NAD(P)/FAD-dependent oxidoreductase (Clostridium estertheticum), 371 residues
Amino acid sequence: MEVAIMGAGISGLTCAITLEKNGITPTIFEKRSSVGDRFVNAEGMFSILNRPARDWIPYISENYNINLKPIDDVDKLFIHSKNEIGTINGKIGYTNVRGRHENSYESQLEKQVKSKINFNSTYEYSELCKNFEHVVLATGDGDYASHLGNYNCNLTCTIKGATVQGNFVTSNPHVWFNYEILPKGYGWLIPFSEKEANLVIAYPDYPDNIRLDLNDIWEKFNNLACKSLDQNLKITDNFEVTRYMMGVCNKAKIDNTYFVGNCFGAISPGLGFGQYTSILTGVYSAFGICGLESYDKLAKPLFENYNHSLVFRRFMESLTDEQMDFQIRNLDNKIIDNLVDIACNRNSSVDLLKLSTPMMRLWNNYKELKN
Ligand SMILES: Cc1cc2nc3c(=O)[nH]c(=O)nc-3n(C[C@H](O)[C@H](O)[C@H](O)COP(=O)(O)OP(=O)(O)OC[C@H]3O[C@@H](n4cnc5c(N)ncnc54)[C@H](O)[C@@H]3O)c2cc1C
């Protein structure tokens, strides 16, 4: 069976590994000259957001034989609002490296792939369709799906990040919600090591935000992060991403084309996590191609998760800094830690995002009516 995979990122490579395990050798096309040839950043994967898996690294290893090594386990997440700092404690998830780094997830996946990767590819999707029985679109954005009329973009974001030097605890990432500085957006710090971390801001490109000066916002956020962490962070590298799309396909598969990773709509709009769904869509599309299970059926819960996450985003956006302070003030309590323990427990079937969606939806409707 002739299968083309367009894009050697995390979803494309995961698809390739799964196809190979089922006796199919795909042809992989990558437009860059090597896997992960882009800026280095740190990303997180939080168990609380990933259903059906609770503890996703052992989950994908045990179930799909995809093996990944994170930077560290996250056992404490610091959440900063305008005037408060709270923590969530427990087995929250993992952090990992991406991009041009020997331990990035894409580099780790490349080592597990046997098929040839054709680098510097200039092939268009239409050409691959003519020459292959199945085409897996894994290009890392919704562009192709949009052109095919199969993508609803809910928002785009502006992202700016930097590698910073300082003193960090690798199991303790930080996130900031401060709408005075980052309207309807957030910032985060994920350590690469005890001496180096990734500091990033992301905010939606809504009309009011487009008028803002990115460098000015960054300056203010950087000062805020230095103040919150009580240290001077030295910037050694930086990157920017404009119009980062958050949206989802109408269909996971059209004829013999499979939409995976961000082409599917892997990014959860709530907090921008997309790696887990990228890996799952990679695996599931391969199952579909091999005729083991229907890709449409497997992808159904992922669509639902996207929709819950969109409700979560609207909920977060509707809060004021004062309401955020109130939420964070109440985080440091044993009930929350116990809830996290229950939700993140490997044997738990509690889906906090799904459970809280009806309440958040009610709140969002009330806020809309009020405005
Ligand atoms: C700054 C930032 C921070 C993030 N943080 C998190 C986080 O903390 N947690 C999380 O879960 N997710 C996070 N995400 C989202 C996550 O990175 C993505 O959801 C995930 O990488 C998508 O995987 P993918 O396989 O779709 O795309 P990618 O892994 O990006 O791979 C796409 C590949 O396709 C190639 N390509 C593109 N066009 C073509 C073409 N025409 N022909 C051939 N090849 C092509 C690209 O070069 C690339 O190699 C973040 C994203 C960004 C930008």
Observations:
- The chain has one domain: 3-370.
- The pocket of flavin-adenine dinucleotide is lined by residues 6-12, 29-32, 41, 43-45, 121, 138-140, 159, 161, 200, 241, 244, 261-262, 266-267, 272-276, 278 (CB under 6 Å).
- Residues 20 and 26 are 8 Å apart (CA to CA).
